[in-house]
User: Fold Aminopeptidase N from Rothia terrae.
Amino acid sequence: MNNENLSRDEAAHRSELLSVDTYDVHVDLTNAADTSFASYPTATTVRFTARAAEETFIDYIHQSIDSIKLNGGHINTAEAIDGSRIRFTPVEGENILTIHGRSYFSRSGEGLHRYTDPTDDKTYLYTQYEPADCRRVFPNFEQPDLKAVFNFRITAPAHWVVSSNAELDRTLEDPADSSISKRVFKPTARISTYITTILAGEYFVASDTYVPTSTVNSGKIPLVAYCRASLAEYFDAENIFTVTKQGLDFFQDLFDYAYPFKKYEQAFVPEYNLGAMENPGMVTFTESYIYISGATQADLESRANVICHEMSHMWFGDLVTMKWWDDLWLKESFADFMGTLGSIQANGFEDAWTTFANRRKSWAYYQDQLPTTHPIVADIPHLEAAKQNFDGITYAKGASALKQLVAYVGFETFIDAARAYFKKHEYGNTTLDDFLSVLDEKSDRDVKTWAQAWLQTSGLSSLSTERIFAEDGTLQELRIHQELPAGVPTGLGRPHQLMLETFIASDDEEPQLTSTGKFSLEIPAGDSHSVAIDLDAEAREQVAAADLLLLNSGDQTYAKVYLSDEDGLQTALKSVSTIDDALARGLLWGSLWNQVRDGKLAATTFIRAVEFNLIREPSATLLAALTSQAQSAISLYTAPTEQASLWDSLYSALSDALESAESSSDAQLILMRSTLAVAAHSPLGIEFAREVSRGAIEDLKDADIEGLQGLKYTQTLGWSALIALAAHSEVDDLTLETARADQSSATSERGFAYASAAFPNAQAKQAAFTAVTTDQELSNEILTATANGFKLGEEKLHVEFYPQYFEQLLDTWNDRSIGMATRVVTGLYPAAVLRENKAIEEHPAVAMGEKWLEENPDAPSALRREIIENVADARRALTAQQASSR
Assistant:
C-alpha cells in the first residue's frame, strides 16, 4: 500500500494527539563504502506523550523492519507495518517507542544519498529531507509541528568525517575493530524532523572561528566547511568563511536575536537536488558553488546570496517554523528577501537586487502565469503538493511581495515586527495569522487588507503608463493602468507602492539615456484599473519631456510593466545598456523579456537587441541573463524556419564579443560559456568547440585557450565543447569514452551522459530514452544530463517516443520517488515545435498532453500538475512561434 502522501488533516489530527520529547537515533554506516550493500541498519527510540489511548502511526519508508517495541512490549510487525507507516496504539501519557530496521541508501538525492567519486573512489554521504524524506532514514513523526530534541549516534569507518546538527560529544572506538568508531553527538535544540541532518564520508575539512563584532551576538562559534577531497584545490573556503562571518554579524544585529545554535558548518555535496538546505548547525549546498572553471563576480554574488538565504533560515524557519506546508512562504519568502539584503548590506554585492529582478522575479513571473499558479499562502492538502510548492511563487513572488510590504509599512516597522515574532514564537510553529498579528501591532497601515490582496490571491498584474497631451503639446495627465489577474476581485484590487523614473536620450548616432529623476507613486487597493497621478509642475515637465518612462524604478512592486512605443520602447531597445544604473537596465531588460514571452514583442527584435548590447552591457549578472534569454528566445519563441539563421547570428555575435572581451574578465568567462552552449546549435561553432574540447581530452592545465589569453582549458569547458560536437556528430564514441576514462570525475560522468545522448541519430536517442525511463540505477544528475542530451536535435528524432512517453507516465510516477519521477516527466516532455499549416491544438505537445489529462482524471494531482504546466508551456511557445512566422 502506497501511503507516503501524508495529508494535512492526518497531520493535524496527529499533532492534536501527540507531543514529542526526544529521538535517540543510531545509524550504522559501517558498510556504506561497499555499494553491494543497498541498505544500512538503524535503531530509533522516540519518547512522546499521547493525550489519549488512540491508534496512530509513525512514518518510515524502509527496506525492512526487524522489531517494534512500545513501552517495553513487542508489537507484531506483520500487523503493525502498513506501507510507509507503522501503526500502534499508545497509552495515555508518556510512551517509549523503539524500532529497529534497515533503510535504503539513496541515488535520488532524497534521504541518505550515497556517492562514489569516480576520481578517487572515495565515498560521500549526506542527507536531504525537505519536505518529508527524513522518514527514508529513520522512523519519525514526519510533520513540521511535531518538534523534538534529537540525539544522533553514527557508526562509520574511523577515518571518515562524520557530522550532524549538534556538536560532537565523544567518539567511541569499536573494541572489536579499530577501523570502526561511533560518533555520539550532543542533543540538538528543539527542531523539526526535516531539518535534521547527517554527513559522513572522506570529506576535505576547512575550519575557522567566528568572533562576533555585532552588538547582539552568540559568542564565538566554530565554523567548518566541507567538500569532496578531489575538489579541495578549487575550494575557496576563505571566501565562504568571510561571507559567513559578515552574514552572522549582520543578521544578529538586524534581528536583535543571537544566532540560536552552537556551531555553523557548511557542506558542499555532490548530486544535490537543491541549491542549499538550512539544516541548523550544518547547512548543505550543491557543490556547483565550487567553481572549478573559475568564478565571475556574478558567481560569487550568487553563492553569497545563497549563504545568506540559508543563514536567515536559522531564524525564519529553524527557530520559528511553519505549522504546516501551507505557510512554507513564512520561511522561504523571507529567506529569499533576506538573502539578497544580506548580499548587499553584509557582503557588498551592490547589484544583488538587479540579480533578484532579472533572475528570481523572472522565475516568479513564469510560474505565476501558469494555470497551476497559486497564492503565496497556498492550499497544501498533502505532501505531494508541498513538494511541488517549492516554486517561483513561494520563493520569488513571496520575496517580491515582502519587498512591496517594506515599501508599504517601512523597513524599520517590518524589522521590528520580525524581532517581536522571533521572541514570541521561538522554537515554536506559526501560521500567517501569527505573523500578521505581530505586524499589525507594529504598523499603522492596513496590513490585513494588504495580505489579502498580496498573499491570498494569485496571478500577476500588468502595469503601463499613458501620457495624455493637450492640443498645444503640454502634458494634461499621466495615468497608470493596471490589468488585474483573474483571481483578484476588482473591489479588492492590488495596491502598489512604486516609483516612476524618467530618461532623456542624447542626439548621438547611438543615443545615451540619462535619468532626469524619479518620484513615488501609490496605486491604492480597490478599483484601481486606471489611476490618475497627481503631478506638481516640476514633475509634469519632467514626465512630458521624457524619451523613456520606467515604471517601477527601484523594483519595489511585483508586476509586469509593459513598454509601448509611446513610453519609449524603441529607445529602450537601442540604448538600454547606456543607462548608468544596473537595476534600471535590468528592469528594462526584464520588461522586454516579458513582452517576448507574451507575444507582444517579436523574439527576433529582442535577440537583435541582445546581440547589439553584448559588448556594451557592463553588468556580469545582466550579461549572463541576457545570453541565456536570447537562447531561450530562439529555441522556444521563434519559428523553426527562422532558428538556424538566428543561431548562426547569435553565435557570431557572441564569438565577436568573446574575442574583444578583456582578458580574465567576468565577461570573458560568461561569453565563453554562452558561446559553447550556442555552438551546439550552430555549425559555425564546430571548429571552436573542437579547440576548447582539448580541455577534456588532453592534460592542458594552466594553459590559455588558443587565441583567448586569460581563459584556461578546463575539464568543465571541455565537456561543454564535446557536447556541442556530439550534437553535430563531430566527435566519436571512442573519443568520449577516452576523455571520460582519462580524466575521471563527476564532471566527466555528467558530460559523458549528456554528450552520448546528444548525437543526432536514432540509436543514441533510443538509448537515452530507454535509460531515463527504465534504468533506476541512474543517479539524479546523470538522469537529468541524459534527458538534456536526448532533447537536443530536430523534432523528427523524437516523434516516435511521444506515445511511449505518455503510456509510461503513471508507471513512472508510481515506481519512483516524486523527485526522480519529476525529472523524468519534465525531462522527456515533447518539445513544442511549430508545424507548417498545423493548428496549435494538433501539436503532440498540446494534443497528446490534453488527451492524457482527459483520460486520467484520477491520476495523482502532482503528476497532473506537471502535465498541465508542460501543456501550458507548449501553448505559449507555439503561439509565439506562430506570431514570429507571420
Q: What stands out?
A: The two ends are 54 Å apart (CA to CA). Residues 8-201 form a domain with the Immunoglobulin-like fold (CATH 2.60.40.1730). The chain is about 40% helix and 20% strand.
